[in-house]
Automatic annotation (TrEMBL):
<keyword id="KW-0067">ATP-binding</keyword>
<protein>
    <recommendedName>
        <fullName>protein adenylyltransferase</fullName>
        <ecNumber>2.7.7.108</ecNumber>
    </recommendedName>
</protein>
<dbReference type="GO" id="GO:0005524">
    <property type="term" value="F:ATP binding"/>
</dbReference>
<dbReference type="InterPro" id="IPR003812">
    <property type="entry name" value="Fido"/>
</dbReference>
<keyword id="KW-0547">Nucleotide-binding</keyword>
<keyword id="KW-0548">Nucleotidyltransferase</keyword>
<dbReference type="Pfam" id="PF02661">
    <property type="entry name" value="Fic"/>
</dbReference>
<keyword id="KW-0808">Transferase</keyword>
<dbReference type="GO" id="GO:0051302">
    <property type="term" value="P:regulation of cell division"/>
</dbReference>
<feature type="region of interest" description="Disordered">
    <location>
        <begin position="291"/>
        <end position="311"/>
    </location>
</feature>
<dbReference type="GO" id="GO:0070733">
    <property type="term" value="F:AMPylase activity"/>
</dbReference>
<feature type="compositionally biased region" description="Basic and acidic residues">
    <location>
        <begin position="300"/>
        <end position="311"/>
    </location>
</feature>
<feature type="domain" description="Fido">
    <location>
        <begin position="56"/>
        <end position="213"/>
    </location>
</feature>
<dbReference type="InterPro" id="IPR036597">
    <property type="entry name" value="Fido-like_dom_sf"/>
</dbReference>
């Protein structure tokens, strides 16, 4: 007998788990510790070969999810298209799921079509030679499309963000590029993911242009550090770097020798202080310039943030 989708969670909404925890706060803390350790195993090569097979097919994606979440969910590695085993019971996902965050409720791919949708996306990816031999900017635009299509399929009931992030980081690495998702705020990811599901890829492509550019990543890391010291939760902000060549009219919030944090309409824009031509306060007009590589000042220290963008 297959149980109804409601059996997936306890009455308070916490997903049923191997830990037997139904307290949301306790579950969140322990789940993040366990999955963080497993994610490091994927990154350092001690996880099973399937998690870094280089095939970039559906089984590769499932293997990453299975390893990261094996200590938390019985059904780790099982997509919404398949029957999940939970506490010995067979459970099917609801036909349609949404992200419940108060935004426009745009559904993800219907559960019964998840595997088909993913196979189509990943087949096309391999037909494109896994995005190899592309200049960074072109890689970023194409990778943004791949990420958005995987996200729209929303293959797993929980843990999509961490799985997609590792999958895309591996994809970038074999193509000779870097992706740093750590500088992407939860608010920004939610907004651009929704826009992508509604057919507008511009925000997601801008995001990938930034996280594949070490100079822009360094600027975001510095700005986010300043905001943290001011006890501002930048995860709740749409925070992005100024686009080279674009003119801005914004208010200075925080300024340092290297970067300036400004407010432009509803967004937080990070720019290079050198673009302000000596302006240090108030409202400023400037045109953003290209970002220099941070290599001249040594390697940028990446901060590992335990985020899950179920977006």
């Amino acid at each position: 007998m297959t149980r109804d989708p409601e059996f997936f969670s306890y009455d308070n909404g916490v997903p049923r788990n191997r830990l037997g925890l139904d307290d949301a706060e306790a579950f969140s803390l322990i789940e993040r510790d366990l999955t963080y350790t497993r994610t490091l195993e994927v990154k350092n090569g001690t996880a099973p070969e399937a998690t870094r097979s280089g095939q970039f097919d559906l089984e590769h994606l499932r293997a990453i999810h299975r390893h990261i979440f094996q200590d938390v969910y019985e059904w780790a590695g099982t997509t919404r298209n398949q029957t999940m085993t939970i506490e010995g019971q067979q459970v099917r996902a609801a036909p349609l799921i949404y992200k419940d965050d108060g935004r426009v409720p745009v559904p993800f791919v219907p559960s019964q079509q998840v595997d088909r949708s993913l196979n189509r996306t990943l087949d096309q990816l391999r037909e494109q030679n896994l995005l190899r031999d592309l200049p960074r900017s072109e890689f970023a635009d194409r990778a943004a499309v791949v990420f958005s299509e995987i996200n729209s399929a929303h293959p797993f009931m929980e843990g999509n963000g961490r799985t997609q992030r590792e999958f895309m980081t591996q994809l970038a690495g074999q193509a000779g590029h870097l992706l740093n998702f750590d500088v992407v705020s939860a608010e920004r990811m939610s907004v651009v993911s929704l826009e992508a599901r509604m057919g507008d890829m511009s925000g997601m492509q801008r995001l990938f242009q930034e996280i594949s550019d070490p100079g822009r990543v360094a600027a975001l890391e510095m700005a986010q550090g300043f905001l943290e010291r001011e006890q501002v939760d930048w995860q709740d902000l749409y925070i992005a770097t100024a686009t080279p060549g674009r003119a801005y009219n914004a208010d200075i919030a925080i300024i340092s020798r290297d970067v300036v944090v400004t407010r432009s309409e509803s967004d937080v824009i990070v720019a290079q202080t050198s673009d302000l031509n000596g302006q240090t306060e108030g409202r400023v007009r400037f045109t953003a310039s290209e970002y220099p590589s941070p290599a001249q000042d040594g390697e940028v220290q990446q901060r590992s943030r335990q985020l899950d963008w179920d977006v």
